[in-house]
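re: ur question from yesterday

yeah so i grabbed the chain u mentioned. its 138 aa long if i counted rite. heres the sequnce exactly as i have it in my notes:
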Amino acid sequence: MIHFEIVGGGGEADEVRDTSPDAVVDFGQAQEAVKGKRKAKAAKTGGGDSKAEKPKRAKKEKPVKEPRENKTETLVLMLLEANGATVAEIAKAFGWQPHTTRAAISTLPKKKQFPEGHTISSEKVEERGGRVYRIVKF
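ran it thru and got these structure tokens back, copy pasting raw so excuse formatting
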């Protein structure tokens, strides 16, 4: 059996504690003694667990979130159209810079939204003001 010496704690000013080596207390007995003090204190204050007595707060209802726009899917749909899209058209649709648009197009085949068995083609069309990008089957 392991014995522990209980020293200090309590906070009772008039309580006298024996800290001599002979005042060794069994830990199990010490736990029971502490539980007894807590029960007595609860009886004095007229209550048990103060948390149980508090009324529960009503939970706030969270607003329903609308699904976010998936720009990758929208870009794929733009490029799947028969006439495709230019960098300027895509940049205007998403509010992107031209370099961001080119980066999105170049990484598109790596995305899971990209249709399997397809590739990106580009051709220069002067009437549309630059290069036109399309997703085509290979």
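noticed a couple things. The longest strand covers residues 118-125. also The mean pLDDT is 81.
anyway ttyl
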